[in-house]
Amino acid sequence: SELAKLDGAYFAEALEAARSMQSEYSRADVLSELAKLDGADFSALLEAARSMQDEYSRADVLSELAKLDGAYFAEALEAARSIQSEYSRADVLSELAKLDGAYFAEALEAARSIQDEYMRARALSELAKLDGADFSALLEVARSMQDEYMRARVLSDLAKLDGAYFAEALEAARSIQSEYMRARVLSDLAKLDEAYFAEALEAARSIQSESRRAVVLSALAKLDGADFSALLEAARSMQDESRRADVLSALAKLDGADFSALLEAARSMQDEYMRARVLSDLVTLDGAYFAEALEAARSMQDEYMRARVLSDLAKLDGAYFAEALEAARSIQSESSRAVVLIALAKLDGAYFAEALETARSIQSEYSRADVLSDLAKLDGADFSALLEVARSMQDEYMRARVLSDLAKLDGAYFAEALEAARSMQDEDSRARVLSDLAKLDGADFSALLEAARSMQAEYMRVRVLSDLVRQAPQGLLSELWETMLAITHKPSQANVLSDFLPRLPLATLPYSDWKAHLHLLAYRKRSELMKDLGTLYLAILHLGGKTAMRGVVDAMREVCSQWK
């Protein structure tokens, strides 16, 4: 397939190779790709598609063929009609109906016969999107569905696409027994006509599950003409404060939201974390209520939550920075204190050192690594100090994480990060850092190559070498080549060579090099070797012209036939 993209003369060979594939799913993918090529032989592709036993795969290819060349519509239609699987038949007929609306009725009938209502709903929703779709017929099929959720899905899609059927969709929605499904469909309909907002809200109120009720109430809050007072009352009545907070936060984003009422609702919440969430959202959206939010924050017992809200408030009014800082300093948990101090250090870099000192005191190196990485992203971060803290970490994996992040952000510390990586005993962690360093602008590839060569485990060395081959400047390729040749495990050496291929002068490749490369690449998996031969196309043309290329394709086909 890759070779056929480069030269259409190899279409027949690529098609033959596709025919020989045992996996019909994979064969379908290749046939669909071949169909997109200039000069594709559609008759041959259609024959290959119709010979497939798997109906879904056959349907997939036939659908692609019909999209690309209308001359084969009739044959594709005949093949589609013979598909036993109801869903696959409906799927292909739906694709064909996009090309010729005269076949909509047949596609709809195929969809109607699908026993699985989930699959039927999918097919109906796709048919509804077609130009000239018969909505009356679709509505009839949808209303005959027993599964209320599936019926709701299709009705919702129909009403979105054609308002003329709104009344019928509304009537069908009202008859749904499941309170959640009924509310969801009514919510969707209220998006189309706000006159039905009250009915959708009443349906939402009747939902017993508060998590589901919150989902529908939050959706209703986004509608034009949403009744803020009614939604707020519905939110207040919820016992689960987590769900109540979800709805209150959604209401805060409404135009014309009553922030005084929302603030009162937030302050009545017993759970301090939930109260903090809503207060933070309120103040972010309207600074007029800053003083009340500040008072509420000060009254919070949980030190971490109090500091978080004060930190958010300090972003809006720097006059309260000192109070937020004091609250942060009083937090007993090191990691929690560090999180708030980082937020404050974003506002005033003078507090970077304090945040770093707090990070240094965190006992858990996993948590410390997270905090250090966040600190490194701050404007004016002191990378020397961060590097010192990172290098003092005992856990090599965590140290590797931080060093990698530091080097990504500031190339000036490349040498120090590289030195720290070299000192790591765990070669897996060392390889990860070296590979990350290889991706940096201005990386010292000579030093990285030296570090890679010093690794004892060959498979770790190979990991780094592959990254270096892809990234290194042209002037270092000869040294990388020598290092590759020293690899004793032939499949690993072949993998590195594969990475090398795009960087070699293939159009002038000597025959001796071609033989050596091909011999080594033979250690790779068959599928990988096929891709490598596509990469080597220019070399093959250079060495033997199109005759040689045809010989290579014939050899590939012969090998593939052995797996039939």
Quickly describe the structure.
72% of the residues lie in helices and 0% in strands. The chain contains 36 helices and no strands.
Helix content: over 70%
Global mean pLDDT: 84
Tertiary shape: flat
List how many beta strands DSSP finds: 0
Largest sheet: none
- Given helix and strand content, the structural type is mainly alpha
Radius of gyration: 33 Å
Task: Give the N-terminus to C-terminus distance in angstroms.
Answer: 18 Å
Q: What is the count of DSSP helices, taking H or I runs of 4+ residues?
A: 36
Explain the overall architecture.
With 564 residues, this protein is mainly α. The chain is built from 36 helices and no strands. The longest helix has 25 residues, at 537-561. The mean pLDDT is 84. InterPro entries: TPR-like_helical_dom_sf.
Question: What's the layout of helices and strands?
Answer:
Blueprint: H1 2-6, H2 11-19, H3 24-35, H4 42-50, H5 55-68, H6 73-81, H7 86-99, H8 104-112, H9 117-128, H10 135-143, H11 148-161, H12 166-174, H13 179-192, H14 197-205, H15 210-221, H16 228-236, H17 241-252, H18 259-267, H19 272-285, H20 290-298, H21 303-316, H22 321-329, H23 334-347, H24 352-360, H25 365-376, H26 383-391, H27 396-409, H28 414-422, H29 427-438, H30 445-453, H31 458-471, H32 477-485, H33 490-500, H34 511-521, H35 526-535, H36 537-561
Helix pairs in contact: 2-3, 2-36, 3-4, 3-5, 4-5, 5-6, 5-7, 6-7, 7-8, 7-9, 8-9, 9-10, 9-11, 10-11, 11-12, 11-13, 12-13, 13-14, 13-15, 14-15, 15-16, 15-17, 16-17, 17-18, 17-19, 18-19, 19-20, 19-21, 20-21, 21-22, 21-23, 22-23, 23-24, 23-25, 24-25, 25-26, 25-27, 26-27, 27-28, 27-29, ...
InterPro entries: TPR-like_helical_dom_sf (IPR011990)
